[in-house]
Amino acid sequence: MNYGQNKFLPLNLGGITQNKSIMHISNFFIGLIFIVFSSTAYTQIDKNIDEIYKGFTDSPGAAVAIYEDGSVTFRKGYGIANMDHKIPIQSNTVFDTGSISKQFTAACIFLLEQQGKLSIDDPIQKFLPEMPQYNGEVVSIRNLINHTSGLRDYVEIMVYAGNSFNNIFTEEMGLDIMSRQMESNFTPGEKFMYNNGGYLLLAIIVRRASGISIGQFAAKHIFEPLGMKSTFILENPNRIIENSATGYTRLKKGDYEKLHYLNVAIGGDGQVYTTVEDLHKWDNNFYGPKVGGKALLEFFNEPGILNNGNVTNYSAGLFIEEYKGHKIVQHTGAWGGFVGGIFRLPDLKKTVVILSNNRFSAPHIKSYQIIDMLIPKAQSKIKIQDELKTYKLKKRLLRNYEGLFEVKGEPHRRLLTYLENDSLRVKQYWNKKDFVLVPTAKGRFFEKNEPYHKFYFDEINHILKIEERISSLETKRTIPFEPLVDLSKYEGEYYSKDVGSTYVIKSEETTLRVLRGEKEIYNLDQVSEHVFGQDLLGIQFSEFNGEMQYFLLQDRRVRNLKFIKLK
């Protein structure tokens, strides 16, 4: 376009040359259009988020915020912070963030390394001599940070023991549980397995390396320098917390009751209390670091590496993923009635934060609904089409992928792949889930409506590998099992020194009932000979001379937990 011939623009304004005047006026209108467009866009986003949270008015709810280019472009509270007094949630409401806390713990460890007080490659026994060394294998601080230590998780052990999270719980008690485990889950660095206990140990390392608690250290070196005035790590269960939310869970009848674990007042794996306003200051540190410098950002972007050279998607308290063509750095949290998440898109300089005091508010799903509003539509559409591009496979090829599979190391988890109406389907017996697989290439599939749940078959033996969001499952082919009619040989009392509890096994028709004291805690289905399971938990019995000797318990974060038969 020849601006000089545009009759709608003046040729001279107060001595300003024609070209400069045109340029200034053009920039003015471009800026005006941008402001109007941005205002319209964010007005629509306001409406969309209001629609997502329209059901949260007289119930526990959430604080939601969007940060963009260093500014807060949206912040709003939905629902009730305290149901006793009907106090509404606001942007300055303080929430327990659960496992979102882990990135702050990792940052504390990094700062201690900067100060020369430790190395992340130090063996943990340098600071934790109480911890056993299994089979002479070294667990490093780095292993704890990246969830590759192979240690058992104290939280799971507490659940098996029937310990209530409403009781007073200290660092010493957590260390006692971790240190009395007779075995580890796996060799350090062999695989990724999320572990709250590893981050509890990191908190103890911070105390022993610095001479002060992790709460004091984080306040001095992170929260105060960044001006996060409402943020702290709960280390005193009796602390008065201004503007605080109470955690809640929903009962079957739809009523709510409190679910707030104030007595677990320890740092490391959780217990960072904060607001969506304060988290904006932490988010800005990832673009212009006041704390830790550029080296801290490099630390947060260095994913874990396994012994075989494979790279995990976890780095220093943060998951590093891709969504619709964009990198997402995120972590969620769930503790008591609190759930939430922080989702950063660094290439767009946009972040979504949700902090909720309603256990059933599904912040992970809602976060991605909001993220979809922030991603440029053209880019998003192209990437989705590329990711979900389907591939037509002939029926005779699909038959190669049929079969019964068992997850290695978790024999209670079996799944069947089968052909129905020219589509390959999966039936997961452990959670009774049945769904269609969509092919993307030869031997490569994803679950319909869940594109990040992927299924790969090798082309030699057609063995299945499953990729989930935070884990990979190796499988092997197996054969069907005819359930036993009489299960009485499994009955008896079984004791675990690691847990400190006795379980009573009783048979009832084709299932086993597991009791702790008088309380039934599991009802297990038969999976195969000597193997029983319920969802992700399974037990495998060992028999000798016709008598059961013990069983091994497997769960999401525990392997081979032994219960020896007493009688």
Short synopsis of the structure:
This protein is of the alpha+beta class and about 575 residues long. It has four domains: about 5-50, no CATH class; about 95-235 and about 255-270 and about 285-350, DD-peptidase/beta-lactamase superfamily (Beta-lactamase); about 395-475, Lipocalin (Beta Barrel); about 490-565, Lipocalin (Beta Barrel).
Structural account:
It is built from twelve helices and 30 strands. By secondary structure, it is of the alpha+beta class. The chain has four domains: 3-52, no CATH class; 96-237 and 255-272 and 284-349, DD-peptidase/beta-lactamase superfamily (Beta-lactamase); 395-477, Lipocalin, CATH 2.40.128; 488-565, Lipocalin. The strands form six sheets. Strands 15-16-17-18-19-20-21-22 form an eight-stranded antiparallel β-barrel. It is globular and about 65 Å long. The relative contact order is 0.11. Mean pLDDT is 89; it is low at 1-39 and 380-388.
List keywords for this structure.
567 residues, Beta-lactamase, Lipocalin, eight-stranded antiparallel beta barrel, 12 helices, disordered N terminus
Topology, element by element:
Layout: H1 18-52, E1 62-68, E2 71-78, E3 80-82, E4 87-88, E5 95-96, H2 102-114, H3 141-145, H4 154-161, H5 171-179, H6 196-210, H7 214-226, E6 232-233, E7 248-250, E8 256-258, E9 272-274, H8 276-284, H9 293-300, E10 314-315, E11 318-323, E12 326-335, E13 338-345, E14 350-356, H10 363-374, H11 377-387, H12 395-398, E15 403-407, E16 410-420, E17 423-428, E18 433-441, E19 444-447, E20 450-457, E21 464-467, E22 472-477, E23 492-496, E24 501-508, E25 511-516, E26 519-528, E27 531-534, E28 537-544, E29 547-555, E30 558-565
Antiparallel strand pairs: 1-2, 1-14, 3-4, 5-9, 6-9, 7-8, 10-11, 11-12, 12-13, 13-14, 15-16, 15-22, 16-17, 17-18, 18-19, 19-20, 20-21, 21-22, 23-24, 23-30, 24-25, 25-26, 26-27, 27-28, 28-29, 29-30
